[in-house]
């Protein structure tokens, strides 16, 4: 082992690390193992998609005091309805994703919203192994 | 009824003193982090901390994941634990909010995945992840490269300025494309794996400029300094192009065993 391996650290970016950099790693990457609490992976996917749209600007938005979550038009086409509409939109997107996961993908591209299309792209990019795990998770306990 | 359940952060190999790395480190709900081990999986441990079940059941999580402040706090706490461990040994970070009813269930998950975790840890030993982002600063609209000739009519002057701006913008992206290629070759000379992340292009955009590439590289520790220096240098001479290097990161982007390993990506 070369002596320079002692310069392993410092893994000490700590609070200075960019939030976007952290989120794309802890949400999008990392090992997925089945836990006991059934986190709906669709929720994580949705969040990831939203963060992809928004995350780079989070620090900036906060700095500027912008209430981006409620008012950002790219987040919700019904932004003026505030938080409630976000939940509604998530419900709608979940339904669309579930439809996608049930294999109705072919021929539905035209009717997908941008959000769902992005998720479906993300799903396609997901490695086969991970998709299998997801299917298992969605079916419930083996 | 609220009970404590176990939030799992990462799998790592304990050299016998790994707990020292966790002194003064607190988990997502502010509780100390402990190492859970099983006799069936030699030396491997899972870092966990207790979290209140009522705050981490399915219903609460669904709500929390809509709340960016909660997501940020949780992600940063998760990352702090992973980072503390990574400072001492090789880790496999787990995805955010991996939860078990109790440590016994963590133990059984560790035993189930033992072989896969062990071989992945071996592959990642003495390697760290580095982030490389490339930004292009679009030319500001107020500074056309050449002022239009004075005798042009206002209409022609306007069109001429527009054309100049468009050309300047195209030039900037062409330079950025060339810079990205240069940076990638420099990075591959040292990296043993690469994973592409999406460019960070939020609704409000990055602070300045456009992020045109956002990659993670797995780099042997002994090559880290050369990697950094050569990647940083590769953007020299490209006006309006910036490269940002972050790291070392725990190998988040390379932890999942079924990810393409990019061996073919790497230079010989």
From TrEMBL, chain A:
<feature type="compositionally biased region" description="Basic and acidic residues">
    <location>
        <begin position="130"/>
        <end position="142"/>
    </location>
</feature>
<keyword id="KW-0304">Gas vesicle</keyword>
<dbReference type="Pfam" id="PF00741">
    <property type="entry name" value="Gas_vesicle"/>
</dbReference>
<dbReference type="InterPro" id="IPR050530">
    <property type="entry name" value="GvpA"/>
</dbReference>
<protein>
    <recommendedName>
        <fullName>Gas vesicle structural protein</fullName>
    </recommendedName>
</protein>
<comment type="similarity">
    <text>Belongs to the gas vesicle GvpA family.</text>
</comment>
<dbReference type="InterPro" id="IPR018493">
    <property type="entry name" value="GvpA-like_CS"/>
</dbReference>
<feature type="compositionally biased region" description="Basic and acidic residues">
    <location>
        <begin position="115"/>
        <end position="124"/>
    </location>
</feature>
<dbReference type="InterPro" id="IPR000638">
    <property type="entry name" value="Gas-vesicle_GvpA-like"/>
</dbReference>
<feature type="region of interest" description="Disordered">
    <location>
        <begin position="104"/>
        <end position="142"/>
    </location>
</feature>
Automatic annotation (TrEMBL), chain B:
<feature type="region of interest" description="Disordered">
    <location>
        <begin position="137"/>
        <end position="176"/>
    </location>
</feature>
<keyword id="KW-0304">Gas vesicle</keyword>
<comment type="similarity">
    <text>Belongs to the gas vesicle GvpF/GvpL family.</text>
</comment>
<dbReference type="Pfam" id="PF06386">
    <property type="entry name" value="GvpL_GvpF"/>
</dbReference>
<dbReference type="InterPro" id="IPR009430">
    <property type="entry name" value="GvpL/GvpF"/>
</dbReference>
<protein>
    <submittedName>
        <fullName>Gas vesicle protein</fullName>
    </submittedName>
</protein>
<feature type="region of interest" description="Disordered">
    <location>
        <begin position="188"/>
        <end position="211"/>
    </location>
</feature>
